[in-house]
Amino acid sequence: MTAPEDRARSAFAREFGVGADLAWASPGRVNLIGEHTDYNGGYVLPFALPLRTAVAAGRLDRREWTVWSEVGRAPVTFREADLEPGKVTGWAGYLAAVVWALRDAGIDVPGARLAVASDVPLGSGLSSSAALECAALGALLDLAGADLPLDDWPALAQRAENVYVGVPCGIMDQAASSLCHDGHALFLDCRSLATEQVPFTIADEGLSVLVVDTRAPHRHADGEYAARRRTCEAAAARLGVDLLREVTDLGKALDILADDEVAVRRVRHVVTEDQRVLDTMALLRAGRAADIGGLLTASHASLRDDYEVTVSELDVAVEAALAAGALGARMTGGGFGGCVIALVRTESAGAVEAAVTRAFAEHNFRAPAAFVAAPSAGVTRV
User: Fold this and answer.
1) Domain limits, the chain
2) What residues does the Galactokinase N-terminal domain cover (predicted)?
């Protein structure tokens, strides 16, 4: 398949009868560790994938935006009157959201035509929405001739998704899509927004990250995600902190919450997951990537038992990968479907993939898809 930027430019010319003025591309991501910690002000460690979403764009001399996507096929047009949160829905709503967020930030976004092509699979937990938002953000800023520091892109893209689209996501996905460097993972403190580019050249150690798309549909993901966020916010209020990241004595916190078993489990996951991110960072800094496997597996167990966001396909994939020799494995993304990552010896990646495929067949699950992920660069003009 041709690169998404080439497909986006070709589609632009076909749909609109002229060539695009410019194009931007932004990657999907996997999160190595640090799940459901971002909206609790904690730590995350994602890296960008080579899979990208591209937006080809051309300026219009009137205040309207016509957008086309490989997903929707039929063009969608929206105007200034439609730039109210929730008014444009579906895939086009993410593009309207970026226009709205830029204008709300005081940036004079011109009318435009946009064509979208993507290699990031939808609904897989690889952050296709953030990839679309950041690619559109780059294209629209470029058309406007506006200079927005890259460090400000994640918060603006997150605001677009939170307020316009209505998805209460944290900032990790947008940060990964915009800020990641090739060959690095991104350590992000979601409270201070401080970042560190962490070398993640695990191929030099004979290791790979195998990404397994379980192709399990996201079941009740939006409502359950929002419910967990509300539980965490309520627990933080009871504990007298603004964010669960600020809990320093887990035992004491769990004693305070002892009358609410659900809150106990949720808080235990968040606090221990933050520590697992810090422990992973320490091992990577020490050049001991092979030793992070146990932390990945412990993260999955916590997400399964305490945060309760896994489904059977995710659990079976992790179990099969570990049985086939993976050094560690966990679900990645919000859960309720989506992907698993496995840290493997490079020479065993094929055997681990085959073991997961066999396990899925035995459980009568849909066949999974898998690929080895290379840490890649964030958003760029293409």
Assistant:
1) 4-199, 202-373
2) 11-58
CA distance 224 to 227: 5
Enclosing H/E stretch for 49: strand 43-59
The helix-helix angle for 312-323 and 349-362 (nearest 10°) equals: 140
Strands across the sheet containing 328-332: 328-332, 339-345, 207-213, 369-373
Give the CB-side neighbour count of residue 219, counting CA atoms within 13 A: 12
Predicted confidence pLDDT, tens digits, the chain (382 residues): 799 999 999 999 999 999 999 999 999 999 999 999 999 999 999 999 999 999 999 999 999 999 999 988 789 999 999 999 989 999 999 999 999 999 999 999 999 999 999 999 887 788 899 999 999 999 999 999 999 999 999 999 999 999 999 888 889 999 999 999 999 999 999 999 999 999 998 999 999 999 999 999 776 666 888 899 999 999 999 999 999 999 999 999 999 999 999 999 999 999 999 999 999 999 999 999 999 999 999 999 999 999 999 999 999 999 999 999 999 999 999 899 999 999 999 999 999 999 999 999 999 999 999 999 999 999 999 9
Matching fold, domains 4-199 and 202-373: no
Q: Select which of 82, 108, 119, 173 is catalytic.
A: 173
SS (H, E, C) 281-328: HHHHHCCCHHHHHHHHHHHHHHHHHCCCCCCHHHHHHHHHHHHCCCCE
Q: How many CB atoms lie within 10 A of CB 271?
A: 21
For residue 229, give every residue at least 6 positions away whose Cβ sits within 8 Å of its Cβ, in sequence order, or none.
39, 168
- The reply to whether CATH 3.30.230.10 applies to domain 4-199 is yes
Q: Domain 202-373, CATH 3.30.70.890 — does that match? A: yes
213 classed as catalytic? no
Distance between CA atoms of 27 and 129, rounded to whole angstroms?
10
Short-list 54, 106, 98, CA closest to 78: 98
Q: Which two tokens stand for residue 12?
A: 């632009």
Helix (H), strand (E) at residue 346: none
